[in-house]
Amino acid sequence: MNKGWIFITGTSSGIGQHAAKYLSSKGYQVIAGVRDQQSYDRYISIENIHPFIFDTTIEKHHESLVKHLTLNNISLLAIVNNAGVSVWGPILDIPIQYWREIFEVNLFSNIRVTKILLPFLNPTNGKIIQIGSSSDRLGVPLMGAYPIAKLSILRFTEILRRELLLTKKYNKIRVSNLSLGSIKTPIWIKAKNIRFDKNSPIFNLAKEQGLSLIDKEYENATSPLVIAKLIEKIINSKKPRRNYLAGRQSYLLHCFGLMPIFVQDFIFKVMGVFMLKKSK
Q: What is the pTM of this model?
């Protein structure tokens, strides 16, 4: 059974891995983008999964993917832009190289992948699915560069969707953004690696509260299988929504983002005073 071809970035772990395994079990042919041979080998024996060494930041991998799709005459039913990294901490204390990394992986690579794969997407019912974050709704202190990058993805997705509507060839392609809350993936574990200036005046507060929040959120986070099933729902939908909220606290963050800015500022100020007292 072949329900169609799907390309997913970042399938070595987390949402990408669950999506690849779940969709392949449902009869979709999944081209699973992985960054290393170990991840590649894990997929070799799984039916309907076709692993492909694909680092979203490496141009040669992009060229190899285009050549592979062309030679095998593959038409894609969906593109799932899932690859991403996270860096947290006081916003002015995150070294500039990590700003470059997070935008290179989360935004620039997303744009390049979409650009090279659009010609291979089924023009009548193709889907572009962006794995975003509900943190793009408001500026949360100490979350660092991540929500800024995700907000950029949200705007890119909106503009892309509207521009495709202006074309004759691609105006039936649907573009959806997933504004996700806390999902139980390794990105939380990796986030415990502190990559901001330890000389920051709020380092101790950021470290203590940040690491505590990471542990709490990971423990109560939503299973990535829930997101894999949502991706299938979008692929099968004739008229998918432009944006989906899913995962722990996604609706809370969305509603918070709808509040007046001065209300948001007041709440964060109160929370900050509470955190300072708690840390003493």
A: 0.90
